[in-house]
Specification:
By secondary structure, the chain is an alpha+beta fold. The protein has helices spanning about 5-10, 40-45, 50, 55-85, and strands spanning about 95-100, 105-110, 120-125, 130-135, 145, 150-155, 160, 170, 180-185, 190-195.
Length: about 200
């Protein structure tokens, strides 16, 4: 039966039906006997370069299957996290301040939707209230309102956001600040939802 050139490329073992390799490829053992007469450990732990670099077709296929399985599992985990994120319930309405607490040109720090999410309530002009997440969209440093200049500044890397819209206007921030949707009932100001934006 002629030798299959694919067996040489894939490194098929004699167990897989490939022809036996030339023993001249291997060095002679210390006792001078041929490879076939050497102890089993000599075959299991080769000291010869060709034998050490040898990979059986079955081992190669097993490696490919396991690697592909790991990639599929990783993609499945990412998809599951994405679905779970979109199924989270919307944050509840939360009273954050009184209108009178934030005079024109002033600002107030509050937490929404959890106590670990700092936000800013700002009054850039009389009768106008805006609110944003205080975490810069670059590396989450706390932004500082500069009402008189009409911007929110990230002091860590000199990022700037427009005060009225929250859009990134200078520096490294890649996207606008998340905007907190507000509702006013009488003199009370409520945070009712978060608007995540990419542009």
């Amino acid at each position: 039966m002629p030798e299959d050139p694919g067996d040489k490329l894939m490194g098929a073992s004699p167990d897989a039906g490939a022809p036996a390799r030339d023993e001249a490829e291997f060095s002679t053992g210390p006792d001078g006997k041929p490879l076939a007469a050497q102890p089993t450990y000599r075959k299991d732990f080769p000291i010869d370069w060709p034998a050490d670099q040898y990979v059986a077709r079955r081992d190669f296929a097993k490696f490919l299957v396991l690697t592909s399985g790991a990639f599929v599992a990783g993609q499945g985990w990412i998809a599951a996290q994405n679905i779970a994120r979109h199924r989270r319930p919307a944050p509840l309405s939360k009273r954050i301040a009184k209108v009178s607490d934030v005079p024109p040109g002033g600002s107030l720090v509050f937490a929404y939707p959890t106590e670990h999410d700092p936000c800013l309530l700002i009054s850039p002009a009389p009768g106008v209230l805006v609110a944003y997440s205080q975490a810069c969209t670059h590396l989450s440093c706390a932004v500082i309102p500069r009402v008189e200049e009409g911007v929110l500044q990230c002091p860590c890397h000199e990022g700037y956001f427009d005060l009225r819209t929250g859009k990134n206007i200078a520096g490294p921030p890649p996207r606008p600040l998340p905007r907190i949707q507000l509702a006013i009932e009488g003199d009370d100001v409520y945070a009712v939802s978060i608007l995540e934006r990419t542009v």
